[in-house]
Design a protein that fits this description.
The structure holds two protein chains of two kinds. Chain A is an alpha/beta fold. Helix content of chain A is 27%, strand content 18%. In chain A, the strands form eight sheets. Chain A has a seven-stranded mixed beta sheet, with helices on both faces. The chains are: A alpha/beta, B alpha/beta.
């Protein structure tokens, strides 16, 4: 879909001739002439203007009545006045009206000092009020949610928060209740406003009506400084501005980046900063004593012990990197393993390795869509990805595209998605059957005559396939948003990369501008770590490594059977984040040594680490990270490191030196330079160039030649202007004609009904930071066992019952039953990544369920069955 | 007015008129047959020629409004505004109750003229009886093929749905009505876009008042040019006038536009009870600026009312005689608008609330003439600054009352202060005793 292109026109404002893009709203166009028109309700991020506050009234020649500048598109030759007596009187009167019921309690209001109402009152108000009647009163402050306080007396009813809830986040919770001067903002039924994006309304509020409970009374604007940063709690890597007071992060605000977050944050990103400053955080190195206890130690001892373990293990060392590790840390880790220890066993993914040629093809610049492409594509296919959990802010972007640009949304997932109601077509395939599903979808797109067998192999239906194909077929540019889990996740049937590349060929993604793939990795910096060479089968820049190593599952196995000795964990706790907990428990127990960088003593670290280095928080880090759409972004420290925390890159550097292979990069800037030199497609980047906005490397000149193995578009027979044929020598899948795989009916799909097929997911709230941040604790998740009402009825399970899920050899996970109509029969979904009873406690693909027999009556017998949700 | 000029209320009390048989017996739906035999442009041409101005309040030329609808094959909507929520207005109620098929016929003809394929009647929630009558009439009309698929065998298909509102004044405002009809909270929308371009469900929409649409069959029957001969040059045709308040024969009267106001108030409605004089009157519903006894000889038409600083509005004359203090009228009125303000835009939400509070203070005797200046200035700050016209609907009559009856307000203030000169002393004494 073409981006809107606007012609520049000339209009007159207050006697100045000003050039502005045509049809820009006057409130924005005025800024081109350095003229400010005051607004309250107008916020371009919220979409169409509503003209409610009436603050922006201006005079437009030829129109008798004053007009709202927020809703008047500027035209060539328009003559606008913002300074006439008539306009000024209107502005003064609106400020007077707004203040008559406002408590004017600025001295005790959190917003004071950074309040648009204050600023506009000073700038445009009458200076005094003639109102002497009693003001309107409400009970205050009230908790709109555990995170947001609402003061209805301060509210000026600008509708911003309500519009956000109704039209942006589409959680439909906030409404205006009552009418006229009695209007107030609330939820329809009085429930707390708990939603993944609720915190944005705090920033949207132009007065002090909605304030952050964690930030309340912590600082005044003159006490604080702002520091640009990047949220590293998920791969969406939203740009943030941290509010810092006395070396503490007190608040997180959005740092609007159209190419990344569109100016929004999720609540995890907004409130998890509290976890930086909790007592649970590790601030000194720990060493395991002879008696098996972890005790604080000095750096010299810790480094010496780690070096000793590593030197002893040599090429029998393995490493996992995850969560917030930067590109530089990844590079140093890879160098330590490969150069200092001669070990090829390192991984930043949790599943089995993906074929390098496939990785290169999937990462080819011509195939990379950008985040804004989600908004302007003709169609978006969400493939086994739940955006609100996997990269929350992208869900808002997709909703925006559907709502404003009528993007056709196709959702193909195994677990029902929050985006289903917005989708033009949906398909539910069997968990772990992405490869079969992609083959089936390709078949449907190629017009295969009989889809039933293909559909059956994927566990979906033929009408679902034709529906998706219909949604995608007519679209010129399609963006496919997929999750890394399809490339051989915990319960995948096969590596779906070939199928994905074939689909990309069929849809012509490589040759259509604005079309492409966005792959969401597991780790926040998964793409950066991959490109820095933290893979068993790839060096920096996806180059072929000197020797192939074991992937994560192989590492667990190697540790358990003694092939490997020492495990180095950089921001990773496999018991928490990796599937196959049983295998990892065995591996960690058998390991000769475990060295970990960690901020918190999560289970795997607490029970198995011999050396623990205290990890930096993102706010303390320096380095670069890479967004899933290829944007290299820069992290800069906002606060100092607490206690004895040292930068991780320094620790890695020091250890390499002690192991006899000094990288010779004594500053982080030199590390970044070395990274840019080592990764061909980062070549020439500088930290200055990255600045605060980052750079998408796939669109840099010549990027196509720098990553070998891009899809050979010549084989598609299509004309192609780019230089992406450089990888022609690589074995590339032939996208057309679509492969017609032999339908392979997996045993799982024909299994007897007693057992269900297991799928896993990781919710937005499944993160240690959520458990450790006091404000977010209430959102920390407990296991819930999602299944269809029909299966539940058959198994005698009711909504809310406590359920035991059994898989593998006597492995059990306990959780509460959650009945969902949208789950097809024969499938059950468990949540991964949570502290207790996580999904990785059992091995699929088939599991059995039964109600937990509770001796004390328990919740299973007492609860009335609630209606199943969609 | 001569009886022959009666168009809408002709034989309105005839028994059985509300049934299809009764309506057809009187020649009902003949205009529709005639219109359907004409090309749509010609029907529109007749409407344009008639000069018919909207009877809902704004007085915009109906044919012109219909001609604004874009051409094309998209769904187009006609919405009949039967919310009739303006205080003092009850003409549409009588029309729908006694002659529902006239409205239905008018809707179908208008839909034909503007190439509309879906129609709705949005009726106010309080009109339960009228809604039942309309429902019955719609069923009859559908069975007889006047609405629904292929009207009378032509290519015109027009599903016509009756929707009952839930009782909010603001839903009589056309865009608030559309929001309400779409199932949302009835709040006015920003204009532009105007409903003719983006109205119901974002589609082109023609919105007309009941009376406007009910006039259409007569125009087709007699011809637009012939209709234009009725009334004055710029206010053609007849108008239903609801007369209420201090008159001896309140009710609906059909008059030719341009009839002297005195004739309507005194000759038809009987004027105030004996011994009382007209003090002020609202010529077009409660939201029109008030006129006084001096204005009684003005011709009752759109332009004369506008020239006098008021408006014809919905054609509802409310008469207030000299037995009622102007303050009571102002307070009643302001309270109504405060209650009905949707709260979306600032000047209306805060201005109506403030005005009521000031009027109450005046009533309690806690005000000075300076407060009248503030109140007048508040009205000026509302007028023209709001999202819709509800704010103006309070500010214009209140402003006019302050302007025209300032001495009476001041006399009240003085009387209240003179009447309780020792109030503060008594309070002081009470304090001293405590």
């Amino acid at each position: 879909m073409p981006r809107p292109e606007r012609q520049t026109i000339t209009f007159s404002i207050d006697g100045l001739e000003v050039e502005a893009p045509e049809n820009t709203m006057l409130a924005d166009a005025a800024k081109y002439g350095d003229i400010e028109i005051p607004v309250f309700c107008y916020e371009p991020k919220l979409g169409d203007p509503v003209g409610a506050c009436r603050m922006c009234l201006v005079e437009i020649e030829g129109i008798p009545k004053l007009q709202t500048a927020c809703s008047s598109p500027v035209k060539d030759g328009m003559v606008v006045h913002t300074q006439t007596a008539r306009v000024k009187e209107a502005q003064r009167s609106v400020v007077e009206f707004l203040l008559i019921n406002h408590p004017l309690d600025c001295p005790v209001c959190d917003k004071g000092g950074e309040c648009p109402l204050q600023d506009i009152t000073f700038g445009w108000g009458p200076g005094r009020s003639r109102f002497i009647e009693p003001k309107r009163h409400f009970r205050k402050p009230l908790e709109l949610s555990p995170l947001i306080a609402i003061d209805r007396e301060r509210c000026i009813l600008c509708y911003r928060c309500v519009r956000f809830s109704q039209e942006l986040a589409e959680d439909y919770q906030l409404v205006l209740l009552e009418r006229g001067a009695h209007s107030f903002v609330g939820t329809f039924d009085g429930h707390p406003y708990v939603a993944p994006f609720s915190g944005n309304i705090i920033e949207l509020c132009p007065v002090g009506a909605l304030t952050s409970i964690p930030y309340r009374f912590r600082a005044r604007p003159w006490d604080i400084e702002g520091a640009g940063s990047i949220c590293m709690l998920c791969p969406a890597q939203c740009n943030t501005e941290l509010t810092v007071r006395d070396e503490r992060v007190l608040r997180v605000l959005d740092r609007h980046h159209e190419g990344v977050d569109d100016g929004w944050l999720c609540d995890k990103g907004r409130f998890a900063y509290q976890a930086i400053h909790v007592d649970d955080r590790l601030t000194t190195p720990l060493l395991r004593d002879g008696d098996g206890e972890l005790r604080p130690a000095g750096w010299d001892d810790a480094l010496a012990r780690a070096a000793e373990l590593l030197a002893g293990a040599g090429d029998r060392t393995a490493a996992l990197a995850g969560s917030t590790a930067t590109n530089e840390e990844g590079m140093l880790l890879a160098r330590m393993l490969r150069d200092a220890l001669g070990s090829p066993h390192l991984d930043s993914r949790s599943g089995p390795p993906v074929d390098l040629d496939h990785l290169r093809a999937l990462g080819a610049p011509a195939l990379q869509a950008s985040v804004p492409d989600l908004e302007f594509a003709h169609a978006v296919l969400v493939l086994d990805c739940e955006p609100v959990d996997d990269a929350p802010i992208l869900e808002m972007r997709i909703r925006k595209g559907v709502r404003r640009n009528r993007v056709k949304l196709a959702v193909a997932t195994s677990r029902p998605s929050a985006l289903d109601p917005s989708a033009a077509a949906t398909a539910r395939f069997a968990p772990g059957h992405a490869a079969a599903f992609l083959a089936a979808l390709s078949g449907a797109l190629a017009g295969a005559p009989d889809l039933d067998d293909l559909a059956a192999a994927a566990g979906c239906t033929a009408p679902e396939l034709t529906g998706l194909a219909a949604a995608l077929e007519g679209a010129q540019d399609v963006v496919v948003l997929y999750h890394d889990r399809i490339l051989g996740g915990p319960d995948a049937d096969a590596d779906a990369a070939a199928g994905l590349l074939a689909l990309a060929g069929q849809l012509g993604l490589a040759r259509t501008p604005g079309a492409g793939l966005i792959g969401i990795p597991e780790a926040a910096n998964g793409r950066g770590l991959r490109e820095a060479g933290v893979l068993p089968n790839a060096g920096p820049g996806l180059s072929a490594p000197p020797a192939g190593g074991r992937g994560a599952p192989g590492i667990a196995e190697g540790l358990a059977n003694g092939d490997l000795d020492v495990l180095y964990l950089l921001g990773s706790d496999p018991l928490r984040s990796h599937p196959g907990r049983r295998a990892w428990e065995a591996g960690l127990a058998a390991a000769g040594g475990v060295i970990a960088h960690a901020a918190f003593l999560t289970e795997g670290i607490r029970d198995h680490a011999d050396v623990v280095f205290p990890a930096e928080a993102t706010a303390e880090k320096e380095g670069t990270v890479t967004h899933p759409d290829g944007r290299v972004q820069r992290l800069r420290p906002a606060i100092g490191r607490p206690g004895d925390v040292r930068p991780e890159w320094q620790v890695l550097h020091e250890l390499s030196g002690r192991l006899g292979s000094d990288p010779g990069l004594p500053t982080i800037a030199l590390c970044s330079e070395a990274l840019f030199a080592a990764v061909p497609f980062y070549a020439g980047l500088t930290l200055t160039e990255l600045g605060g906005r980052g750079i998408r490397w796939p669109v840099r000149p010549g990027a196509g030649e720098l990553l070998p193995g891009g899809p050979d578009t010549a084989t598609t027979g299509e004309a192609d202007g780019g230089g992406t044929a450089a990888g022609g020598a690589q074995p590339t899948p032939t996208p057309t004609p679509a492969p017609t795989p032999t339908p392979r009916r997996s045993n799982a799909l024909t299994a007897p009904g007693a057992r269900l097929l297991l799928g896993t997911y990781r919710s937005i709230w499944a993160a240690p930071e959520v458990e450790y941040a006091p404000a977010l604790k209430f959102l920390a998740r407990e296991q819930r066992v999602e299944l269809s009402p029909a299966d539940a009825a058959r198994l005698g399970i009711r909504q809310g019952d406590e359920v035991l899920v059994t898989g593998g050899a006597d492995q059990q996970v306990r959780g509460r039953a959650e009945l969902r109509n949208a789950i097809p029969e024969g499938r059950v979904f468990l949540e991964a990544g949570i502290a207790e009873h996580a999904a990785n406690g059992i091995d699929g693909p088939l599991v059995s369920l039964h109600r937990a027999t509770s001796t004390n009556g328990g919740p299973s017998g007492s609860g009335t069955p609630a209606r199943a949700r969609a | 007015m001569t009886p022959s000029a009666k168009l809408l209320f002709k034989g309105i009390d005839e028994p059985g008129l509300a049934t299809l048989a009764g309506y057809e017996r009187r020649g009902g739906y003949q205009a529709l047959r005639r219109a359907l035999a004409m090309p749509a442009e010609d029907v529109l041409g007749e409407l344009l020629a008639s000069g018919l101005r909207g009877r809902g309040g704004a007085g915009f030329a109906m044919g012109k409004k219909a001609s604004f609808l874009p051409k094309g094959t998209m769904d187009k909507y006609l919405v009949c505004n039967a919310d009739e929520s303006e205080p003092g207005t009850f003409k549409d109620r009588e029309l729908m109750q006694k002659n529902p098929h006239l409205l239905i016929e008018g809707i179908v003809i208008a839909a034909h003229a503007a190439a509309i394929n879906r129609a709705f009647i949005y009726i106010r929630g309080e009109y339960e009886q009228q809604a039942r009558i309309l429902d019955r009439a719609l069923a009859e009309a559908e069975a007889a093929g006047y609405i629904g698929d292929r009207v009378l065998g032509t290519d015109l298909s027009l599903p016509l749905v009756l929707h009952r509102g839930a009782g909010a004044y603001i839903c009589g405002e056309e865009t608030g009505l559309l929001d309400s009809l779409e199932g949302k909270r009835g709040n006015p929308r920003l204009k532009p876009p105007f409903p003719a371009n983006q109205g119901l469900y974002q589609g082109p929409t023609l919105i007309n008042n009941v009376e406007t649409l009910a006039t259409v069959p007569a125009i087709i029957a007699m011809g637009g040019a012939e209709y234009a001969k009725l009334g004055t040059e710029t206010s053609t045709g007849t108008k239903l006038v609801s007369v209420s308040g201090h008159v001896q024969r309140p009710g609906n009267y059909e008059v030719e536009l341009g009839t002297p106001s005195r004739e309507i108030i005194y000759d038809m409605a009987g004027g105030p009870p004996p011994g009382r004089e007209v003090k002020l009157w609202f010529p077009g519903g409660s939201s029109s600026p008030v006129l006084t006894a001096e204005d009684l000889d003005l011709p009752y038409d759109f332009d004369s009312m506008a020239k006098a600083g008021s408006m014809l509005g919905s054609g509802a004359i409310i008469v207030v005689d000299d037995s009622t203090p102007v303050l009571d009228v102002a307070l009643k009125l302001a309270k109504f608008y405060r209650h009905e303000s949707c709260g979306k835009c600032t000047p209306c939400r805060e201005g109506t609330n403030w005005t009521v509070q000031m009027l109450e203070r005046i009533e309690r005797g806690e005000a000075t003439p300076m407060d009248l200046d503030i109140m007048a200035s508040v009205q000026e700050h509302i007028i023209g600054h709001c999202l819709c016209v509800l704010g103006d609907a309070m500010a214009m009559p209140i402003g006019s009352m302050i302007k025209k009856f300032r001495p009476e307000f001041e006399a009240h203030m003085e009387a209240m202060q003179l009447g309780a000169p020792v109030a503060s002393e008594a309070a002081l004494a009470a304090q001293g005793a405590a």
